[in-house]
Every structure is written in structure tokens, then in C-alpha cells.
């Protein structure tokens, strides 16, 4: 990510201080402009994201009519080149591109599968900011993923849901679709009157014209693209304010008022508890959205406002799932992944937060939850190393439960004082940024003053059950 300030270095592109060396010319030689890479280089998902630029901000305006299932949109992408570019890619799945401009001038565009290739009239110089605007339209379709299930835009009975991990955004707007390139987002979503369109961040206004309502949302903290979402439908909305921040929650109206509403209403209480263990809540808004479409079988930590499948609340109030998704606001969202392989950093910490919440709210000790999982987990869990799960096990029980057991083993090893300092320091030092497992281990060693390689080797990378944790 480069924030807006970085765009101002544009005129200094020739100075070696602000110009990354990749693709930069010698001080006297001619520049060579090359196409930006079609992927961000993630070993698990090589085609996700792109190379050669860094997005600072997206402004996405879409109009969607559930009756016809057609979407028309414009996306304005403010970025900075990180190498000398003759062309660059954005990820866009399906949909037709009408026109593209770069810095206000018409640009050539072509499609290669889910890649949009933009060739500006002139090369883009490393370090310089640029703005590209894409006009597009069509019938959005989700992306199939054989092992992980589909992600992205789904047409529902009366609206739509765009949601998914590890990818979803490219099904409704052109995007650098990898968590390593965080950016701020402004959304304007126009839908027929009577429908609600809810997305990330703070509500930024609502206007009506000719039977259509435009809902505006602003996510002002950097966000990974898969954490963006929109839910359009007949929704029961609750608004409020907490600690000076807006609260905006919504539950699908087809669900009778009940456990979903009461669970989501506990959002701010859970967030306040998590602040005591993780440090300040990282975002400008609170909320939650409960969807009823049976194709959504998970909850997702969409930034500032998680989305929950109604199935979590079928047996009654469920604040553990709320604690899980809210914990991700610190770990997953504010501190985002650099590569998908490190997913345990998100899921292990969020699952451990459920254990902490259960101890706080129900007096079920985290130590007891650990003991139950340690002795009761199937052998399949011990065969999958959560620190290197492979694409097929990205969301497996090993990543979640053994990930959380790893966190607990660390707590036992370094003691509560160092452990809770570590969680707060990780959240603070990596706030609005990206982290890796190696960086987390290094910080744990720094904070505790202990050598932890054997512990992490066994818990994250071993293929058999590690020994019972003991204080180091
Ligand atoms: N990160 C989500 C959560 O734990 C789960 C997403 C599941 N995605 C999937 N493709 N299975 O809260
Ligand atoms: Zn999770």
C-alpha cells in the first residue's frame, strides 16, 4: 500500500530514494517500460493480484438491478507505479469493459481470462502516481473454486451478496485482488428504492432519484480487497453510535426478529472486551450483517462490518462467532496477511479470541478449551501443519483449532505477561499493514526474550501432535 502522500512523490520519480530499483533505469540510460506482472506472486494463488503498481484508493460506483441481474459501474483507481510500466493488469472476472482512461486519456484495454490488461498511451514511470478509470457492465457471476467453494457476486431472491475469501472483489469491480495491496475504498451503490445496500466502513450518505437509492460507504482505513463486500436486499437495519463511531447493522428481513438480532446487538460489547486484550479497536465503524441465502455457509470478517450466515444463530444467541469475526478486525484486517500460506495468523488468533471470550463471558477457561482440543482432536488434524496447510487445507480445522492451540502453547511457554504484551504489540506495530509468520515469531522472541523456534516448528510445521506445552 502507498497512501495518498506517496502519490505526491511523483515528480521525484528520477531520484533513487523514492524509486524502487526494479525496472528503474541507470541515471543516464533510457527507461525500459515493461508490462506489469499478471500476479502478485503469492505461492498459493499465483494469479491473484498484479505486479508493478500499488493502489492507494478505489472509488467504486455501481448500479445494480436485481430484476435484471445487471450491474453497471465505474471504478476509479488511484495508484502509484512501482516499476516502469508499458501496461498493467487489474483482476476482473466476467463483466464487459466499456472504456478505460489513464490520467484522463483514453487507454487501450484487452481481456485475458480474469485479467484486464490496460495499455496507457504513454509508459508509467516508477514512483509516479496515476489514476485509471474503468467503465464496465454485465451480469456478475461468482468465481468457482474447486476446493474452497465459490466466492464473489451472488444474485439472491431480492438482491445480491458479494462476499468471499480468498477472493471475491474482482466479480464486481476491477481490483488488484491480493491482500498485500491494501487501499482505502469509497463505494456508491445504487439500487431500486426499498432495498438497502450495505458495505464497509462509515455510512457516507444516501440519496434518491427516479426510483433509485444510492447508498454511500467509506472505508478510510486501508483494506485488503477480499474484505470488501456488498449486501443488497430487504434488510432490517439498526443504527447507533458507540465511542463516537457509527454502528450500522442489518439482518435479512426474511428472518424473524430473534437470535441473529440479539447476537449482532452484542457487537460493541464484544469489541469493548477485545480491546482489553488486543488494544484499541482499529476501525471507524461497527456493525454486522446477517444474510439468509443458503449458499453462504460461513461468516466473514469483512472490514468494520462482518457478514454472518443466518445459520450461526439457528440454535439461539451466538456471541462466539461475533467474537471470532471481531477478533479478525485486529488480526486479519488491520494486520493483514502478506501471503495466504500464513492464514493461521488470522484464524488461529481469531479462534483463540473465541476461547478468551468464552472465559470472559461464560467462565469456561481457555486452558480447559485447549485441553479438550489437545486430547480430543482427530489424527487428521495433527497431520496438517497449520503454518503450511496447502491450498486444499486453507480453511481446515488444523488452521483454526491447531492454530488456536499454537497460540495457547505460546501463552503457556512465555507466560501471560509477555503473551498479552505480544498480542497488543503485534496489533499496534502492524496496524493498517501486513505481517508474516516469520515476523510474528521474531516479535514473540523479542517480547519474551525466549528462543521459540522449537515451539513453532512443532506446533506450526510438525505432522504429529506436539508435546504438552510447558513454561520455558
Ligand atoms: N475467514 C472466515 C472466518 O473464519 C472463513 C471464510 C471461509 N471461506 C471459505 N472459502 N471456506 O471467519
Ligand atoms: Zn476466521
UniProtKB/TrEMBL annotation:
Name of protein? Aminopeptidase N
- Family, as annotated: Belongs to the peptidase M1 family.
Q: Known EC number(s)?
A: 3.4.11.2
Q: Is Lyase one of the keywords?
A: no
Q: What residues does the Peptidase M1 membrane alanine aminopeptidase domain cover? A: 314-459
Domain Aminopeptidase N-like N-terminal: from-to ranges: 57-227
InterPro entries found in the cross-reference section: Aminopeptidase_N-like_N, Aminopeptidase_N-like_N_sf, Peptidase_M1, Peptidase_M1_aminopeptidases, Peptidase_M1_dom, Peptidase_M4/M1_CTD_sf
